[in-house]
């Protein structure tokens, strides 16, 4: 197969609490290159003046404190209002996608990696799956996900459920995915699953050679 960006690209996504970031960190341990869309979004929302202006227009001057994004203020609004959440996504997604495509071109040109992982919560929602060769979805039992988020973010069950409801249903994500990792076990079990996919992506990359 011909890779879309001259290098094998694999998107990793999943609902809140599923463990997609943990999966990506393990891929990094094995030597993979990972682009974190959420980190790029935060960077752009704090450093891109055009984006900052648009966010202030939607959410008000309270959306920034001393030039830094007021994350809790924004989160409280977008998890309570579908309209405001979609508005934010409509201005942030294009900027993030543009940056990721630029980074992919650069990485492919350097020739240091056989494949690239792109971690993003909204791969399907933003339509970015069309830019990737494969999408791997990380999922877990709902109660396990809820417990993880309560422990991690020190929030209430209702707050977690509100955030989960704001995301695309995990069953739909699994149906849209090319591959799935179920992360219901311990870290050693997860590492074995990631190791399998790391080897698989290496083989796909080498056997195709980008052609």
UniProtKB/TrEMBL annotation:
Location in the cell: Cytoplasm
Q: Which residues cross the membrane?
A: none
Q: Which reaction does it catalyse?
A: 3'-dephospho-CoA + ATP = ADP + CoA + H(+)
Determine the domain of life of the protein's source: Bacteria
Pfam name, any one: CoaE
Going by the UniProt record, its keywords in alphabetical order are: ATP-binding, Coenzyme A biosynthesis, Cytoplasm, Kinase, Nucleotide-binding, Transferase
| InterPro entries reported in the protein's UniProt record | Depp_CoAkinase, P-loop_NTPase
Q: Name one GO biological process term.
A: coenzyme A biosynthetic process
Q: What GO cellular component entries does it have? A: cytoplasm
Q: Which CDD domains match?
A: DPCK
Enzyme class, UniProt record, top EC level: transferase
Pathway involvement of the protein, from the record: Cofactor biosynthesis; coenzyme A biosynthesis; CoA from (R)-pantothenate: step 5/5
Q: Spell out the HAMAP family in the cross-references.
A: Dephospho_CoA_kinase (MF_00376)
Family listed: Belongs to the CoaE family.
Q: What is this protein called?
A: Dephospho-CoA kinase
């Amino acid at each position: 197969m011909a890779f879309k960006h001259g290098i094998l690209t694999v998107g990793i996504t999943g609902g809140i609490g599923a463990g997609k970031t943990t999966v990506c960190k393990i891929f990094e341990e094995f030597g993979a290159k990972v682009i974190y869309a959420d980190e790029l979004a935060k960077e752009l929302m704090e450093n891109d003046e055009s984006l900052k202006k648009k966010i202030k227009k939607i959410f008000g001057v309270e959306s920034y404190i001393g030039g830094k994004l007021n994350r809790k203020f924004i989160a409280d609004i977008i998890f309570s209002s579908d309209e405001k959440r979609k508005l934010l996504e409509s201005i942030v997604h294009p900027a993030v996608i543009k940056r990721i495509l630029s980074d992919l071109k650069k990485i492919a040109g350097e020739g240091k990696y056989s494949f690239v992982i792109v971690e993003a919560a909204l791969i399907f929602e933003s339509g970015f799956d069309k830019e990737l060769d494969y999408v791997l979805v990380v999922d877990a039992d709902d109660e396990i996900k809820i417990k993880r988020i309560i422990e991690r973010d020190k929030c209430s069950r209702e707050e977690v459920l509100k955030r989960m409801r704001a995301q695309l249903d995990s069953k739909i994500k699994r149906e849209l995915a090319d591959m799935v990792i179920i992360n219901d076990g311990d870290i050693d079990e997860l590492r074995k699953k990631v190791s399998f996919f790391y080897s698989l992506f290496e083989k796909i990359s080498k056997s195709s050679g980008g052609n």
